[in-house]
Specification:
This protein is of the alpha/beta class. Helices cover 35% and strands 24% of the residues. The strands form 2 sheets. Strands 6-7-8-3-9-10 form a 6-stranded mixed β-sheet, with helices on both faces. Keywords: ATP-binding, Nucleotide-binding, Transport. This is Multidrug ABC transporter ATP-binding protein.
Length: 258
């Protein structure tokens, strides 16, 4: 555990890492010298709005480069276009909201995602079926996207994110808009993904971290305030501490609103 930047665990090379990265939007510093490593399993990102979580995810998706520092993905420094294109094919992303053509079936949408991620043409149909089966949507493969419920759409969103069998999966607020029962099922799915890939999940919900994550990083005002296991975060608040009370211990009143 550390109350600052995390170093990779000995003998466990990270799937992704950021080292001393800074990102600025004009006068606003979104990330300020942040270093984090992301090994296999599920890592949660906690922090209030404006903490830097979404910016950190954008670095890991290669959507933008840092102003300073280095991003390493799948053992390669993402420093040139060729490397970025190569690593993108091994990354899966579920944004908080994703666009889709409502007349596409779930199968067609997932195959389209496979095409975008350069899955060979002869494998796309089977890979899409495999991904839909993983999220329990195989029996709805022929249902049009515009006819699916919110929870079913989120599951198809996961399917498109893993259709390329990625080593790294990035999830931005994956349970937003779901009812309590749907959240329970979705958390089980995320835990399953963590046995196959390194998963990084940004969330405002302490319950998502409690029931899903192996590790957690707390961000506030573009800085890392804590990195460690979920149990270590809880322990900061004393005996009987929870993720929420540990989080409040770390951020204090200034970051109390998740």
């Amino acid at each position: 555990m550390s109350l600052g930047n995390e170093r990779a665990a000995v003998g466990s090379p990270p799937v992704a890492a950021v080292e001393a990265v800074s990102v600025r939007y004009g006068a606003l510093v979104a990330l300020d010298g942040v270093s984090l490593t992301f090994p296999s399993g599920v890592t949660g990102l906690l922090g209030p709005n404006g903490a830097g979580k979404s910016t950190l995810l954008s670095l890991l998706t290669t959507a933008q480069p840092p102003a300073e520092g280095a991003v390493t993905l799948l053992g390669e420094r993402a420093a040139d276009r060729r490397t970025v294109r190569r690593v993108r094919e091994r990354i899966g992303v579920l944004p908080q909201s994703f666009g889709f053509y409502p007349r596409f079936t779930a199968q067609e949408f997932t195959e389209y995602a496979a095409w975008l991620r350069k899955v060979p043409g002869r494998e796309r149909r089977e890979r899409a079926r495999e991904a839909l089966a993983l999220v329990g949507m195989d029996k709805y493969a022929d249902r049009r996207m515009g006819e699916l419920s919110g929870g079913m759409l989120r599951r198809v969103g996961i399917a498109q994110a893993v259709v390329n069998r990625p080593a790294l999966v990035l999830l931005d607020e994956p349970t937003v808009g779901l009812d309590p029962a749907q959240r329970v099922g979705f958390r089980e799915l995320i835990r399953e993904l963590g046995t196959r890939s390194a998963v990084v999940m940004s969330t405002h919900l302490a319950e998502d971290v409690t029931h899903t994550c192996d590790r957690v990083a707390v961000l506030l005002d573009g800085h890392v305030r804590f990195t460690g296991t979920v149990d270590e975060l809880c322990a900061l608040a004393g005996e009987g501490g929870t993720v929420e009370s540990g989080y409040l211990h770390v951020v204090g009143p200034e970051g109390a609103a998740l």
